TrEMBL record:
Keywords assigned by UniProt, alphabetized: NADP, Oxidoreductase
Top-level taxon: Bacteria
Protein name according to UniProt: Quinone oxidoreductase
Cited CDD domains: QOR2 (cd05286)
Domain Enoyl reductase (ER): 12-325
One Pfam short name: ADH_zinc_N
Length: 327
């Protein structure tokens, strides 16, 4: 069988993204073949394209999609042909119509959740789940606690605004424009700071009456790292989970001594290393989406053929919420 796919032959800019035709075979043990209905776009795709996260070439990009299972390999028991399904993978390869992939991270998609929503929410929603529910300071987050969430109007950000509100947390969101700040507030952020114009650490201290916050979730990285530490209360946790502005390189551990702070660099792929954990996390995500407390905001759609433009817009901070590639 043939499938259209997006591939790079070397790391580089969006111009390296090429539409090709690939041959797709039958699933081996532990694998499925899935025909996609929609594909999710994620910032991590840009790291894998640019080489910030290096891969062997050629590389078929993409970490998220939804579709219908066509065939299952030996040993796969949680899925069968005909099932609606969605996933956040490794390995990369979701930018295509049809693929064979490991079944481990693929979950059945509840009938009440559309294919587009499924494609947009798996990587970003499972990330929000582990950040808010599995990456906590020692005593846990309690209703009423303040947290800071950077890039709050982005894909992960708008899901986090809603999920934090549902948990009773006071999320202080940051974003690069006033319009994006309004969007974060409309999705449940308690406060929003335009970090292009304002010193966000000073504003966070004002909002919290000088106390600081329990956790800062920082996907911006290089540009926000030191300011994020300055937002913490004593014993607070900084979770650096992305590199929007570039990676955080070596830093002086002495910075943590200002408040006995903790720093972690978590990734979804450690959390979804087993089928059982992946399913438990996905069940929580499906439940909160089905309850209506979290709505998945799909703010951009691009045909798969326009993937270069999709990458350009994402990296130029032109997008809000989630983006999907349509087939
Ligand atoms: P977003 O939709 O949030 O897009 C990234 C946003 O980062 C931009 O819209 C922009 O918002 C902000 N940003 C700040 N500085 C820059 C910069 N210099 N260049 C580009 N963007 C910048 O993307 P996703 O929702 O896909 O992902 C959000 C982040 O979470 C990414 O950093 C991603 O790598 C990370 N992530 C990490 C995971 C993990 O497990 N570790 C899993 C999933 C995502 P603004 O204009 O408001 O500043």
């Amino acid at each position: 069988m043939k499938s259209k796919a997006v591939r790079i032959d070397r790391h580089g800019g969006p111009e390296e993204l090429k539409i090709v035709e690939v041959e797709v075979g039958d699933p081996g043990p532990g694998e499925i073949r899935i025909r996609h209905k929609a594909v999710g776009l994620n910032f991590i795709d840009t790291y894998q394209r640019s080489g910030l996260y290096p891969f062997a070439m050629p590389l078929q990009l993409g970490m998220e999609a939804s579709g219908v299972v066509e065939a299952v390999g030996e040993g796969v028991t949680h899925l069968k042909a005909g099932d609606r399904a969605a996933y956040a993978s490794p390995p990369p390869g979701s930018y295509c119509e049809l693929r064979v992939m490991p079944a481990k991270t693929v979950c059945r998609l509840p009938d009440a959740i559309s294919f587009e929503t499924g494609a947009a929410m798996m990587l970003k929603g499972l990330t929000t789940q582990y950040l808010l529910r599995r990456t906590l300071p020692a005593e846990g987050l309690q209703p009423g606690d303040f947290i800071v969430f950077h890039a709050a109007a982005g894909g992960v950000g708008l899901i986090a605004c809603q999920w934090a509100k549902a948990l009773g947390l006071q999320l202080i969101g940051t974003a690069g424009t006033d319009a994006k700040c309004q969007l974060a507030l409309a999705h449940g952020a308690a406060h929003a700071i335009n970090y292009s114009k304002e010193n966000f650490a000073e504003r966070v201290k004002e909002i919290t009456g000088g106390k600081g916050v329990k956790v800062v979730y920082d996907s911006v990285g290089k540009d926000t790292f030191e300011g994020s530490l300055a937002c913490l209360r004593p014993f607070g946790l900084l979770a650096v989970f992305g590199n929007g502005s570039g990676p955080v390189s070596a830093f002086n551990l002495g910075l943590l001594a200002k408040g006995s702070y903790y720093v972690t660099r978590p990734t979804l792929f450690t959390h979804i290393a087993t089928r059982e954990t992946t399913q438990a996390m996905a069940d929580e995500l499906f439940a909160i989406v089905e309850s209506g407390a979290v709505k998945i905001p799909i703010d951009q759609r691009y045909p798969l053929e326009d993937v270069q433009q999709a990458h350009r817009d994402l990296e130029a901070r032109k997008t809000t919420g989630c983006t999907i590639l349509t087939l």
